[in-house]
Amino acid sequence: MSDNDYLLDLLKSQQLEEGCDELVALDTERDNVEQLLNDEYPDSNPNFTHGGSRAKGTMIREDYDLDEVCYFDNDDTAPGETLEEIYDNVATLLETDYQVERKRSALRLKSKKGKDLKIDIVPGRYVSDTGTDVFLHQNEGDKERLKTNLEVHIAHVRDSGCTDVIQLGKLWRTRNGILIRTFPLELLIIEVLSTNNTGNLQDRFERVLTSFRDDIDDLSIEDPANPTGNDLSFALTDELRDTLRDVADDTLAAAADHGWEHVFGALPKAKAAALPRVAALTAAATAVSGAAPPWADDK
Amino acid sequence: MTWHTDDPSALERLRATLRDRYPTLHARLREDVVHVEGTFAALSEDAHEDRYAINVRLPADYPRSIPSVWETAGRIERIIDRHVFPATGALCVAVPVELWINLEGDFSIENYLEKAVRPYLIGNSLFEEGQPWPFSESSHCSYGVLEFYERHLGTKDARVVGRFLLDLLKGKVKGHWPCPCGSGQPLRRCHGEKVNALKNVPAGALLDSVDHMVNLLRMASA
């Protein structure tokens, strides 16, 4: 199998098909959130819909979550007078059924027992009664208010011609523990490939990593929904650039020496043919001979 | 001076090892300390892959003393009952002296990952599945240290363990001398092999064990 065929099969193994267990679980919680909102704000009619990777077509099995935007009409004051009130009131409402982690603009949902449900709810308010621009509340940064446009974001990624490389890039990020958020990574990949998106998947992915290795300091990202108004520098710090450069360098060297299967590992076999997870872990433990038991000290 | 400034090629050799064996782990230099960061597949079998985001901080005298390791994605709660040092958040993969013996003083990244980190993480994954830790668990603090010496020397008497340790620290352990266990046998016919295994453990680690034994005796007499 060629390296490019391997990468194509790898992406195939990362697809989440409609109706799979993971998406059904997300949809169940999504429906519950929608019900909570409808019960609390019966006279509001928020636009409650998919944002993020599900809408963009860049979801991968190994690193997925569901971004649901919840945009209220610009003259709807039922959820709050100000953006901060909307954000806080939606958070408080969700806390009836979930633990809620308040992120920069999103609300991350966990079960009451603390299990991460992989769902972000993003409250906001339309700027006008005709357009699709919205204002979001921001907990961090210089500006309390962020103007953005979900439709522009989705179209920018979905129609970029790069969604396959973006999926591979997300897997690369996850496998290497790189703490870059999804949107800046998507913007970086689109920026690199904007000048040359020719070749097969392997060619294009290697082009992205080569650019990260050689030119990361020269790459800049801007919000396509508000290029001059939204500062994304917080999402691409010098430290993060250094990490991207170093990891891209290591990855390219490892792939050149050993091929891409060495970097991402063997393709997973079908679950039906495999041992149950606990049995697989137990077998792995048995294979480790003479291990010491874990300890701990309070010092 | 540290290991990578003493021998500048050593860091390149470490990077080559990571590329060859652990391509999702990367050596990063920060404030003169080398960190090995990324994800580590504790399990990679058929349909199951279990990866942990980790940061291994290599000591200044790498690979001659024990590295520290953190789980960095928030998967393991940073409490003592999950075998995490609460003060630092580092994973406590084993009683340090036991680690010295098991790894024979070789804390190179491959040896440390395979013989210390992997067993711990597999154990944690099983624990998450509601299973017991596969290699058992040591009790916390001084009690866990004594349990190690019970496994190693066959005694759970902190005073006797203390005698072994003090003889070792004096550096004058001879095979024909009476065994510190009190059996009346010469050491070489009694605990000679076990004591020899402890001879290469640094004095600092043995002294920590002495402190734990003193602590246990103090608690017993209180």
* Total count of strands of chain A: 7
Predict the CATH topology of chain A: Poly(a)-polymerase, middle domain
Low-confidence stretches of chain B: none
Q: Give the H and E element order of chain A.
A: HHEHEHEEEEEHHHHHHH
Main interface pair?
A-B, 44 and 65 residues
Structural class of chain A: alpha+beta
What does the largest sheet of chain B look like? 4 strands, antiparallel
* Cα-based radius of gyration of chain A, to the nearest Å: 22 Å
Helix content of chain A: 40-55%
Individual helix count of chain B: 8
Instruction: Tell me, briefly, the overall form of chain B.
Output: globular
Q: In the CATH scheme, what's the topology name of the largest domain in chain B? A: Ubiquitin Conjugating Enzyme
Report on the biggest sheet of chain A.
7 strands, mixed
How many domains in all of chain B? 2
Structural class of chain B: alpha+beta
Oligomeric category:
heterodimer
Describe this structure in words.
The complex is a heterodimer of chains A (about 300) and B (about 220). Chain A has helices spanning about 5-15, 20-40, 50-55, 85-95, 150-160, 165-175, 180-195, 200-215, 240-260, 260-265, 275-285; strands at about 45-50, 65-70, 100, 105-110, 115-125, 135, 145-150. Chain A has a single domain, classed as Poly(a)-polymerase, middle domain (Orthogonal Bundle). In chain A, strands 1, 2, 3, 4, 5, 6 and 7 form a seven-stranded mixed beta sheet that branches. Chain A has about 300 residues and is of the alpha+beta class. The model of chain A has no long low-confidence stretch (mean pLDDT about 90). Chain A is globular. Chain B has about 220 residues and is α+β, with helices and mostly antiparallel strands. Chain B folds into two domains: about 5-130, Ubiquitin Conjugating Enzyme; about 140-220. Chain B contains eight helices and four strands. A four-stranded antiparallel beta sheet of chain B has the order 1-2-3-4. The radius of gyration of chain B is 19 Å and the shape is globular. The chains are: A alpha+beta (about 300), B alpha+beta (about 220). Chains A and B meet through α9 and α11 of A and α2, β2, β3, α3 and α4 of B.
